[in-house]
Amino acid sequence: MTSKQRAYLRSLAVALDTILYVGKGGLGPQVIREADEALEKRELIKGRILPDTCPETPRDAAEKIAQATGSQVVQVIGTRFVLYRRRKDDSKIVLPRA
Hints:
Elements: H1 3-13, E1 18-22, H2 29-42, E2 44-49, H3 58-69, E3 72-77, E4 80-84
Parallel strand pairs: 1-2
Antiparallel strand pairs: 2-4, 3-4
């Protein structure tokens, strides 16, 4: 992913609501499954680490979720992160050319 494409995805993520929360349970199979389902429906999701309870850092959690779901980390800011995975059929997000 190029920096131009990443910037475009970041601009789209500003308006998104946070739909994935990682808490004291850490990155269990339930969190991975929720992320995978959300990425299949939306392509771009915003997640948050609950800092007082989660054993993972935001960067580590985002990278582990991305690896498990086949997605890419767009950005990590504070306790929030954004993930992107192109939908196999009928992609709604069209990335700018490199």
